[in-house]
Amino acid sequence: MPSLPVTVDRADPRPLGIQLADQVRRLVLAGTLVTGDRLPSTRRLATELGVARSVTEQAWDQLRAEGWIEGRQGAGTFVTGGHTDVPIAPRRRRTPAPERALVRLDAGTPWLDARHAAGWRRAWREVSAATPPRGYDDPRGLPALRMQLAERLGRTRGLIVDPDDVRLTAGTTAGLRHLLAVLPHGPVAMEDPGYRAAVLTVRATGRAVVDLPAEAAITDLAGCCAAYVTPAHQHPLGRVMPAEDRLTLLTTARRDGALVIEDDYDSEFRYDVAPVPALASLGQDTVAYLGTASKSVAPSLRLGWMVLPSSLRASLDRHREVTHDAPAWPVQRAYWALLRDGYVDAVVRSARRIYAERAPRVVAALSPYAELAGPVAGMYSTWLLPQDRAVRARAAVRAAGFDLNLLDTYCRSARLTGLVVGFGGASDAQLDEALAVLVASLSS
Amino acid sequence: MPSLPVTVDRADPRPLGIQLADQVRRLVLAGTLVTGDRLPSTRRLATELGVARSVTEQAWDQLRAEGWIEGRQGAGTFVTGGHTDVPIAPRRRRTPAPERALVRLDAGTPWLDARHAAGWRRAWREVSAATPPRGYDDPRGLPALRMQLAERLGRTRGLIVDPDDVRLTAGTTAGLRHLLAVLPHGPVAMEDPGYRAAVLTVRATGRAVVDLPAEAAITDLAGCCAAYVTPAHQHPLGRVMPAEDRLTLLTTARRDGALVIEDDYDSEFRYDVAPVPALASLGQDTVAYLGTASKSVAPSLRLGWMVLPSSLRASLDRHREVTHDAPAWPVQRAYWALLRDGYVDAVVRSARRIYAERAPRVVAALSPYAELAGPVAGMYSTWLLPQDRAVRARAAVRAAGFDLNLLDTYCRSARLTGLVVGFGGASDAQLDEALAVLVASLSS
After folding, report:
1. B133/A66 Cβ within 8 A
2. pTM of the entire structure?
3. In this complex, do A274 and B163 lie within 8 Å of one another by their Cβ atoms?
4. Minimal CA separation from A443 to chain B, in Å
5. Does residue B24 contact residue B37 with C-beta atoms inside 8 Å?
6. Which residues neighbour B220 within 8 Å (Cβ) at sequence distance 6 or greater?
7. pLDDT tens-digit readout, B211-266
8. Residue environment code for B409-441, b if the CB has 16+ CB neighbours within 10 A, otherwise e
9. Which helix (H) or strand (E) holds A38?
10. Quick check: A334 and B331 CB within 8 A?
């Protein structure tokens, strides 16, 4: 019998010393060994176990490094890290729960045409062959990608920017978070109803949110450090902010010392007219512009960009340099290839054609039963309905395997009820099925 | 002469109607057209310009959608969005400034062995062939990747976890941010000196930071919602938290109702003994565990994971489901392949051998001139020096093309000065050169 209740198992792939250390650690945690207990010498234990002395020395070295035991000059080795009031967490292992299988008819799931798969594959094959940067890369984002984005913002959004003003982000809320990190502490004015992820992001900074009625001119930002708006396509009511309101907003923001944060999430998808130029094109000194690849290419890329007023550039770069809060390099590299090869333009054109065909289909199906909240653009429509009918309709589509959001979940002070019906993330057949279920519920 | 100073240019690839709309918008912004000005009819302008009426109608539709003009029943079309006090931002475009070229000898830039490039390429080629998810994917992270991580955490960190307790993050600070989003508001206790990105992340939530002397037992967390610690390798002083201090921390956290947040950033790199098991293995109910791919594979992956106390799971998942704050799907898919193929184990083994050889080289070179702050592990060593000598040495290595950090930048109340000397992100020749420059400065 060894002087400690431990054994070695030569069939176990772990080194014998590690096996021993592990067993002694458990004895201490279980309270079998307590602080002050004297341990056998490495020589004696090695003899008892029939192992080389280097094995027991390795175990004692490990336990000493972890602080479980200590040697006292001339006296031997003693347990030192022994409390007995810490229960060991129960050990269990289950397989993960299955992913939710509902087809999401939400405001942000875009349609992807299988025809473009070759371009996607090519971009990622390039990533596979490229050499990743050593360490953290340029915290502003890949210079070549910032060049491409600056070119495209000018061409598609009327936003003439210097690539040095462009920063890559891990999406819209990441850009908002970086801006908040360098703005003075103070409330943020936000559209109501509005984008819930942005509201959570602001609240996570400990800031209050001031409700801006989503369809009114913004004439007062006193005390606010910023105003967060979706001028190209109010989320989720759909309105385009009129030119006069845009100019009023810029005048108000300048007067009250607030930054305007423009979330330009899906502005490339309009079916009546060409995309409305970005608000930031009217005043880059006052407006921080946030764009995203989520609606044009794929939300799961977690890629976005921002165009900064030059006054914020230095402090924001310092913040990002310390936090390393930038999008993954492989994603930036792939998106650069996708832009360069015309993939992004091609998928936007295809999706715009699909949405332009689906939008009137959704409107025709639902307008006999609900009131459209605003013009339909992007990949969703918003419908006003009494809450009980909206809740019932949502339950019906969920039972049929689809998911969509209630309008009231976007509201804070606003008292609007209804449904947000996305039409990007489903096949044509799925969309028809979901619309039929909605119509059946709403007409009953 | 047309009745408006506009023209069409058939050599311009943009549609003629968009060209017209653009020119009218500029006239309004420049103040040439002001609110109330009557515009010519689409028929008249079409005749004057020699274009189809559909062209002028497209332009007017666009401007009406943007709110620059409005039609008044029976009276014609008028400018409505005209302020003149908003200067148009100056248009300029430069090429981006070049990337910084300094070789970073920091605490977090790992070494990458070219021998492993084939495994990296294979993983990304798989991404190129895989079908990305439609819309946002599972907000907890890829189930298959969570399975792999749970297995590896048990094997390498002594952390027996259920895959359902694992969440993928965009890195350590992202995990910290998610935890803070669901913890009660209140100060966070953090090691001093400590990880600066974590401090900025806590402060960005509007919380105060309570300084914990980095090498003392933690016996008081009253009023704190959490304690952020690096028990496997105190960042940047190097100490392994002794077993007794670990148990004391857990007891204190349970008594004071604080969550322990364990940042386990580089624990796989120890050269004397086997890696010390994770603190979370002693109490998964009290400890949230944060791991990262930055130190083992590449920081530019922006990938990390956390193991949650089950009490936080539901609220954290709700938060992540709304914010979509998860790592990019292609990165998760690639990391799953890298784990499955043994790539991660292989690069960790290679790097451990390299670091085990470099660590004593750095110690031998610098110990005649500075005092080592603690045991060397991971990919850096920390040296105590008077501030003036540290500043001078840093200036010397920067002039030679390297960058490293001053110890005082990690301090808040602590009054420690010196240098943090990383040895992961350089070639052997570069490391020799940097050490020679440091020695020359420190010995002068």
Report:
1. no
2. 0.84
3. no
4. 30
5. no
6. B252, B256
7. 999 999 999 999 999 999 999 999 999 999 999 999 999 999 999 999 999 999 99
8. ebbeebebbbbbbbbbbbeeebbebbbebbbeb
9. strand A38-39
10. no
